[in-house]
UniProtKB/TrEMBL annotation:
Organism of provenance: Streptomyces litchfieldiae
Signal peptide from the UniProt entry: none
Domain of life: Bacteria
SUPFAM superfamilies, sorted: SMI1/KNR4-like
Knr4/Smi1-like domain ranges (all copies): 133-307
Name of the featured protein: Knr4/Smi1-like domain-containing protein
Pfam families: SMI1_KNR4
InterPro entries: Knr4/Smi1-like_dom (IPR018958), Knr4/Smi1-like_sf (IPR037883)
Matching Gene3D superfamilies: SMI1/KNR4-like
C-alpha cells in the first residue's frame, strides 16, 4: 500500500465509524424530532466526504475531525441506550441545564411541580417543541417594559413550566411571551390580539352578548338632515366613530388561548379582576363573558388550565 493509500484507508475507516454511530443513534432515539436530527446529520456526513481535498493533508484532517466527533458520540449512544424515556426527556430538555445551574427563581415552593417534565415529554412525543421557561430576569424585564405585573399563577407558570404551549398537545395552547430582535416583549400567535399599549389599563369587566352597535339612530336626532349628516360620519369612520370596540372591552387583558374560528380566552391582567379568565366570541358576533365555576365563583388561570387540559 502506498503512503497516500494508508491515509485513504484511515479516512474511510473514520468515515465509516461516524456513519455507523449516526445510524445507531437514530435507531436508539425515542423521539421523532431527535430521530430526524440524527438522520439529518448522517446525510450531512455522507455529503462531507465529497468535499474533502484528495491529498494527505485533506485525508488526515477529515479523519481527525471525524474520530474526535465519534469519541463524543460514543458516550452519548451508551447513555441513550440505557436511558428511560423520563431520563431522556430531562437530558434533551435544555431548560434542565439552566435549572441545574441555579439560574431559576426564588418565588417559593413550586406551584407547578412536575409539569415541565410532563409537557416536555408530551411535546417530544407529538413532534413539537416546548419553549423553555423564562428566567426571573427576563420576566422582570418584560413586566417593566409592559408596565404590568402579571397575575401570580400565570407568572409562576412562565417561570416554572414554559413561556407558552404550542397547539396540538394534550394541554391548552398558550400564546408564547417572546422578545423580538429589537428587544421588545409581547405575545405571539393568538397573543398578537393583545393591546400592549392598553395592558396597564383597568379591565372594564363588562359582559356583553355582542359588540355594541354605535350606528346612529333616527330617533336620537331632531331632524332628518342632522341624522343623515351623522350617518355619513359613521359610514366614513370619522370621529367619534371608527374606534375599536373589542379593544375597549378587552383592555387590561391578555389574549392567551385560541378556541378556534376567532374565539378566544383572555386572562385579566390589570384591575381588581386580575387573574380571572374571560371567554371571547366577539369576532363571530357572539359575546364576552367571565368564566365561572358553577355559574358563581370566578375561574382563575390555574383552575382553567387544569380543566382545559382534560
Amino acid at each position: 500500500m502506498t503512503e497516500l493509500g494508508q491515509y485513504v484507508a484511515e479516512f474511510v475507516e473514520a468515515w465509516n465509524e461516524l456513519d455507523g454511530l449516526y445510524r445507531d443513534l437514530a435507531a436508539a432515539a425515542w423521539w421523532p424530532r431527535e430521530i430526524r436530527e440524527w438522520e439529518g446529520k448522517r446525510r450531512e456526513h455522507e455529503w462531507a466526504r465529497k468535499d474533502v481535498a484528495p491529498s494527505q493533508e485533506g485525508f488526515e484532517a477529515a479523519a481527525r475531525r471525524w474520530r474526535a466527533e465519534a469519541a463524543g458520540l460514543s458516550g452519548q449512544l451508551a447513555r441513550l441506550r440505557r436511558s428511560t424515556p423520563e431520563q431522556q426527556a430531562q437530558w434533551l430538555d435544555p431548560w434542565s441545564k439552566v435549572r441545574r445551574s441555579g439560574t431559576g427563581h426564588a418565588d417559593g415552593p413550586p406551584l407547578w411541580p412536575g409539569w415541565r417534565e410532563r409537557l416536555w415529554r408530551a411535546a417530544l412525543a407529538s413532534d413539537l417543541w416546548l419553549p423553555r421557561p423564562l428566567l426571573a430576569a427576563e420576566l422582570a424585564a418584560a413586566e417593566e417594559q409592559l408596565g404590568v405585573r402579571l397575575p401570580g399563577e400565570y407568572r409562576r407558570f412562565l417561570l416554572e413550566v414554559a413561556a407558552g404551549i404550542p397547539g396540538g398537545m394534550p394541554a391548552p395552547g398558550l400564546a408564547p411571551l417572546v422578545r423580538d430582535d429589537a428587544g421588545r416583549w409581547g405575545w405571539d400567535d393568538i397573543g398578537t390580539r393583545t393591546r400592549l399599549s392598553r395592558l396597564a389599563e383597568e379591565f372594564p369587566a363588562r359582559e356583553v352578548d355582542a359588540l355594541p352597535d354605535d350606528e346612529p339612530r333616527r330617533a336620537d336626532f331632531p331632524s332628518e338632515e342632522a341624522y343623515l349628516a351623522e350617518l355619513v360620519k359613521w359610514d366614513n369612520d370619522e370621529p367619534p366613530y371608527g374606534g375599536d370596540p373589542v379593544g375597549d372591552l378587552t383592555c387590561g387583558a391578555l389574549c392567551l388561548h385560541s378556541l378556534g374560528c376567532g374565539d378566544a380566552v383572555w386572562l385579566v391582567v390589570s384591575g381588581p379582576l386580575a387573574g380571572r379568565m374571560w371567554s371571547d366570541h366577539l369576532v363571530n358576533e357572539g359575546g364576552l363573558y367571565a368564566l365561572r365555576r358553577d355559574r358563581r365563583a370566578p375561574v382563575f388561570f390555574r383552575e382553567w388550565f387544569l380543566d382545559a387540559r382534560g
